[in-house]
Amino acid sequence: MLSNLLLVCGSAVLTWALHSLGHPFLRRLGTLGVFVTSFLAGWLLGGSLWLGTIFAATWLFLPWIEILFYVRKLRLPIRPPIKHCPPPNSSSFPDLSDLSEQIEQEKYEHIFDAGWQIEDMRNFYRIFYNPAHRNHATICFIERATATFYYTAITTLTVEPRRKFLTWNYPFSYGMLVPKTWKIQRIPFCEFNQMLHYHKQFLEINGIAPEKIEPQKTEELLELLKSFAEEQVRFNIQKGILRQESDGYVRYSLRGMFFLWWEFLWDLFRLS
Q1: In a domain, 262, yes or no
Q2: Do residue 94 and residue 223 come from a single domain?
Q3: Domains in the chain: how many in total?
Q4: Cβ pair 270, 173 in contact under 8 A
């Protein structure tokens, strides 16, 4: 029994060591080690192959706790009530000032702060505009009772056909499908000046010449933000990820809940 305990402990230590290394391949081996360690604990300490299998599989099904008890009950408006609002306090979002400074150093002008809240979820947006690039930058802060995170994004619109080109550092797989007229480039863990460089390359690769870029009117950016949100919600209703209720709100459908679970599994592999 002692030898089995030492083997499980050794597997746990090896898993921790692999996760602490910087190479993506070794970190993914560390993720695999979590499943191996859980299996060994059930098999060697619990005395059953079936128990080991259940212990290992539990990690894959943990997201269903949040999906069933939080996401399933979540109701969202088709057109989020985004309006001007003050920023969150520094204790809630201490990085806001530094992020804003990074963006303003690239000649972007702070236009407004806005947000919306429903139940225990709050979305905050700080919008900047650069007339030379004819695009806007966004700092988005997502605050929930159980977790908070933020990301930055750069958005360029084109004319004839009108398309949206978005470069961002959103930290997870996205919880909805995006419309076909949107093209998204994800650049994780980067400063804003790097993101701006990659965004310019993104436009060049897609053949977007400067004359194809649509200037954005700063006084219309708030309505633009609302229209983007509504467009995405309606697209996901069409695809069956969301279902519309009689009062104008939407919920995740059963298909949508399985979609979220798949996104979690992808993140488990990608972020490990």
Answers
A1: no
A2: yes
A3: 2
A4: yes
3-state secondary structure of 242: strand
DSSP string, 48-64: -HHHHHHHHHHHHHTHH
Range of the structural domain that residue 44 is part of: 2-61
Start-to-end CA distance of the chain, whole Å, equals 32
| 168 and 51 within one domain | no
Burial profile 11-20: b = 16 or more Cβ within 10 angstroms, e = fewer? bbeebeebbe
126-147 pLDDT, tens per residue? 999 999 999 999 999 998 867 7
User: pLDDT digits over 165-206, tens only?
Assistant: 999 998 887 889 999 999 999 998 889 999 999 999 999 999
Between CA 239 and CA 235 the distance in angstroms is 6
The model's pTM is: 0.81
On whether both 47 and 95 belong to a single domain, the answer is no
Question: Backbone phi, then psi, for 144, in 5-degree steps?
Answer: -130, 170
114, 225 contact by CB (below 8 A): yes
CA 111 to chain centre: 24
